[in-house]
Every structure is written in C-alpha cells, then in structure tokens.
Amino acid sequence: MLADHAKAIHRVCFGADPSESDLALLGSRERWLIYRDLVRNRLSAVVDAALGRTKQALGEEAFSRAFDDWLAGGGPKTRYLRHVPRELAELALPIWEATEAPYVADLARYEIAAWTVRHAPPNSTAVGDFGFDRRPVIGAAVELLRLDHRVHEPRQPEPELAPERVHLCVYRNAFHRAQSYELNALAADLLEAWKRGDQTVAQSVQRTAAMHGTDVGPAFVEKLSAMIADFIERGIIVGGAATQ
C-alpha cells in the first residue's frame, strides 16, 4: 500500500496530467493539486535560475516543453535541488543540438558549468604545497569547457553567434561567483591533465608540450610560470600532492 501511494505521488507531481484515480487514492484532490503546483514551481524556479540565458535564447515555449518532457520522463533522480538543472540539461542538450540554433547547446553547457562551480563543495584543507615534482591539485569549483561559440560573453538580447572555438576554465572566484578564464588549446590540455591528477606538473607539461609540438624553452617556461601563478591566485590550483 505504501509503495502504491509513493508511485501515485510521483505520477501526480511529475506526470503531464494527474489521473483522477491517483488523486482519489491519495485522498484529497484539491490538496494534492496544490502540492503538485508547489513541487513543479520550485523545480522550475531552480532551473530558471541556472539556465536563464538559455531560456531567453530558446523562448518560453521551447524551454517549457523541455522542462515538461523531463518531468514526464520521471523528474529529478537527485534529492538535491542544486543538481536538478544538470539533470534537465542532460536530457535536453541532444534535442537542442538537433533542433535549435547551434549556439544554444553551448550556452546551456556554459550556464550549467557556472551553476556547478557556484554550488561546488569547498576545497579540501588537507592539501600540500604546489611543486613541479608533485601532482597538481585543482580546486573543487573548477570546470573545463571546450565550446564552439563565445557564449561566456553576456549579451542582451541573445544574438545568433558565429562558430568560434573557445576553451574556458570556469571557476568560483573569491566573491563566490562563477568567472571565466579563456585558455589557448595547449593551456586547456594542461588543465585537463592537471584535473586528472595522474602526473606530476613537470610530466604533464613535457607530454602536453610535445603533443602540441611546442619547445619547452625559456619563453615557454616564463609564460607557464605566469599562468600557474595566476591559477594559484585565482584558486584554480590549490596545491600539490605527492606522487603515487
């Protein structure tokens, strides 16, 4: 009986149209219709907060359709509201890529990354000092994006964007806001290697530079050192760990 009630609650809250039989089973039609609206409105508010620019680019109708399809497919799998926008995006992105303007999916990816870093957990306090002979430790609130449109530059209203490859480090700054750091292809590959954390800084630099056909000479080392110092100051790199 309890399981039947749980399934009925799920269908009432997330189904396209609650059935009269489910409402009768739960015992108070008006109360459960109000509860349905409260649940759906709360989820909608979180999604709108995370994907506001994407919603504007898509338009109310297309965005609402994606939201309703996600709910009808079972709704959130998580108990945490902060994870809800990513779950919706995972369902909607393939559809938006196939049916909407090309930049819309990239805009959604960027907004989800910004939302994720804003709500990421704090960094571990048990982190050692950074060193080239140690594995780098990247902050918990850091995302690497490789996009085909410059969607990180806010515009009002949202325009059509011509394709342009861009590599972004999206991180949480000292004011607890998402901020973008634009990278070249080599720096993006370095950050990707550092996020994996399976090589020392020196190893990852040598391998990534070789992959790009770049000589690790004085000029390169000077630019690399400046970038690392900037990453540390911004909290993108938070320390180092001993080799395994």
Could you describe the largest sheet, including whether it forms a barrel?
3 strands, antiparallel
Low-confidence stretches: none
Portion in helices = 55-70%
Number of helical regions: 10
Net shape:
elongated
Number of strands: 5
Query: How much strand content do the residues show?
Result: 5-15%
Mean pLDDT across all amino acids: 91
What gap, in angstroms, lies between the N and C termini? 52 Å
What is the H/E order? Answer: HHHHHHHEEEEHHHE
User: What is the topology, as strand order, of the major beta sheet?
Assistant: 2-3-4
Provide the gyration radius in Å: 22 Å
Q: Structural class, from helix and strand content? A: mainly alpha
What is this structure, in a nutshell?
The protein contains ten helices and five strands, in the order H-H-H-H-H-H-H-E-E-E-E-H-H-H-E. The chain has helices at 2-14, 20-26, 29-50, 52-58, 60-72, 84-99, 102-118, 185-196, 201-211, 218-234, and strands at residues 135-138, 142-147, 166-172, 178-183, 237-241.
Explain the layout of strands and helices.
Blueprint: H1 2-14, H2 20-26, H3 29-50, H4 52-58, H5 60-72, H6 84-99, H7 102-118, E1 135-138, E2 142-147, E3 166-172, E4 178-183, H8 185-196, H9 201-211, H10 218-234, E5 237-241
Antiparallel strand pairs: 1-5, 2-3, 3-4
Helix pairs in contact: 1-2, 1-3, 4-5, 4-7, 6-7, 8-9
